[in-house]
Amino acid sequence: ARNGANSEAGKGGFRDRAAERRALHGPDGDDEMYKPAAGTKRARDINGNLDWKCQDCRTTNFARNITCISCGAEVNDRTEYIDGASKTRARLEIMQRLQR
């Protein structure tokens, strides 16, 4: 059994990330930045079920989030949404670069 945050990481095992989060944020996860501001369904409604890029730190966030997972900024009128076509285009560009 894992009893420490990194108890097996050095032995070729996996990190216990849940234990690391509990150690960092407490057992109830009381860090306000990581608490959802709205339910997933409501967030998807707000975001039109589209992933989005944070206007402050440029991190890509899933549609289920209305606050940035990196900096905590909220979705606003400057939010850049990522549609399926641009995701496909970006994926193709990456694949083309990898084949060079």
Q: Top keywords for this entry?
A:
3-stranded antiparallel sheet; 100 residues; alpha+beta
Describe the structure.
The chain is 32% helix and 8% strand. A hairpin with a 6-residue loop joins strand 1 and strand 2. The chain is α+β, with helices and mostly antiparallel strands and 100 residues long. The radius of gyration is 18 Å and the shape is extended. The protein has a 3-stranded antiparallel β-sheet with strand order 2-1-3.
Point out poorly predicted stretches: 4-8
Number of strand elements: 3
Cα(first) to Cα(last) distance is: 45 Å
**Contiguous helical run count:** 3
Strands in their spatial order, largest beta sheet: 2-1-3
Please summarize the sheet with the most strands.
Answer: 3 strands, antiparallel
Q: What fraction of residues sit in β-strands?
A: 5-15%
A few lines on this structure:
The chain has three helices and three strands. The chain is α+β, with helices and mostly antiparallel strands and 100 residues long. Strands 2-1-3 form a three-stranded antiparallel beta sheet.
Topology:
Layout: H1 17-25, H2 40-46, E1 51-53, E2 60-61, E3 80-82, H3 84-99
Antiparallel strand pairs: 1-2, 1-3
